[in-house]
């Protein structure tokens, strides 16, 4: 059943994989389906238990031009202190930083089970020579990254160079080896549900362990519609191959209700099997304090 393509020599192997899926998705149908989920289901998940779960799915992110070693060190220390101050609450899933800070985080982080995610491959544009992307990814891992977030080469995708897009993703997955690799689709640039579905399928066949909506550097970022299409693609891929792929909405998740909406879409499309922080992550630079404030019942700026 499993359809791992990496060892096949066929020149059009990824186009062939794409042809196994219906990628002619209607934007209008997606909008209607999302509207229905939001109207009928989101309220069921607006509760303390879900908010606690969401805290444990957060990829605590700092990807700022102003980041420095001191700031990243302080950022990591807050995660260490969180575990001491709130032992009954789930700690965040990862700390997500630029590769030049992987060493700082890995030398400072004291909490077991918090992964170190590094954006790589010339984040956020992905516009660099593959050799540079390979080197950056290898160095991030050498310095302690336990997960890698790369950006799909969006320009190549929009030009229809699907084999090149997939070969590049596959090459970077080879560098990652056992380390989990997330592929950011930058769904705001893909515009249509059909493109988002195609990019999702292509990334999964090329070796993505997670697919991720956005870099957070472009608008629109993680929309419920993009999340819906990506979750559908993950489900169809799982049904066909038996391989479970994670989902990471990221970028522009600014309110607790944004997070609950993403949770609801995952629950409705993918089901309970994806509702662990191994398979569902939220990349955010703003949500951790808001979620914590709601969980503890008063405003806090811990992170
Ligand atoms: O990967 C995570 C995103 O870059 C975070 O985006 P954000 O700053 O809009 O929350």
TrEMBL record:
UniProt GO molecular function: deoxyribose-phosphate aldolase activity
EC number: 4.1.2.4
Name of the protein in question: Deoxyribose-phosphate aldolase
Pathway(s) the chain acts in: Carbohydrate degradation; 2-deoxy-D-ribose 1-phosphate degradation; D-glyceraldehyde 3-phosphate and acetaldehyde from 2-deoxy-alpha-D-ribose 1-phosphate: step 2/2
Keywords: Lyase, Schiff base
Organism, scientific name: Xylanibacter brevis
Keyword presence, Lyase: yes
Transmembrane segments: none
Major enzyme class: lyase
Reaction equation(s) it catalyzes: 2-deoxy-D-ribose 5-phosphate = D-glyceraldehyde 3-phosphate + acetaldehyde
Database matches in Pfam families: DeoC
Similarity comment: family membership: Belongs to the DeoC/FbaB aldolase family. DeoC type 2 subfamily.
Superkingdom of source: Bacteria
Family matches, as InterPro entries: Aldolase_TIM (IPR013785), DeoC (IPR011343), DeoC/FbaB/LacD_aldolase (IPR002915)
């Amino acid at each position: 059943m499993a359809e791992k393509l990496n060892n096949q020599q066929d020149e059009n192997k990824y186009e062939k994989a794409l042809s196994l899926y219906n990628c002619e998705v209607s934007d209008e149908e997606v909008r209607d389906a999302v509207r229905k989920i939001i109207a009928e289901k989101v309220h069921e998940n607006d509760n303390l238990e879900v908010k606690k779960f969401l805290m444990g799915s957060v990829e605590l992110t700092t990807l700022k031009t102003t980041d420095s070693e001191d700031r990243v060190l302080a950022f990591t220390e807050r995660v260490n202190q969180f575990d001491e101050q709130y032992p009954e609450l789930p700690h965040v899933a990862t700390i997500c930083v630029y590769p030049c800070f992987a060493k700082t985080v890995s030398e400072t982080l004291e909490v077991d089970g918090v992964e170190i995610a590094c954006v790589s491959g010339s984040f956020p544009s992905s516009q660099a020579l593959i050799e540079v992307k390979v080197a950056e990814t290898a160095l991030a891992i050498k310095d302690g990254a336990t997960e890698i977030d790369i950006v799909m080469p969006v320009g190549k995708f929009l030009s229809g160079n699907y084999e090149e897009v997939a070969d590049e993703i596959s090459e970077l997955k080879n560098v990652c080896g056992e380390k989990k690799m997330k592929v950011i689709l930058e769904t705001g640039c893909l515009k249509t549900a059909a493109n988002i579905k195609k990019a999702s399928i292509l990334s999964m066949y090329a070796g993505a362990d997670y697919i991720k909506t956005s870099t957070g550097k472009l608008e629109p970022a993680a929309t419920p519609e993009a999340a819906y299409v990506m979750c559908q693609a993950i489900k169809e891929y799982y049904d066909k191959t038996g391989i479970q792929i994670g989902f990471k909405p990221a970028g522009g998740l600014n309110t607790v209700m944004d997070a609950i909406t993403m949770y609801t879409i995952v629950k409705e499309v993918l089901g309970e099997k994806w509702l662990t922080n191994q398979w569902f992550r939220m990349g955010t630079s703003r949500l951790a304090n808001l979620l914590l404030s709601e969980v503890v019942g008063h405003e806090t700026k811990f992170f």
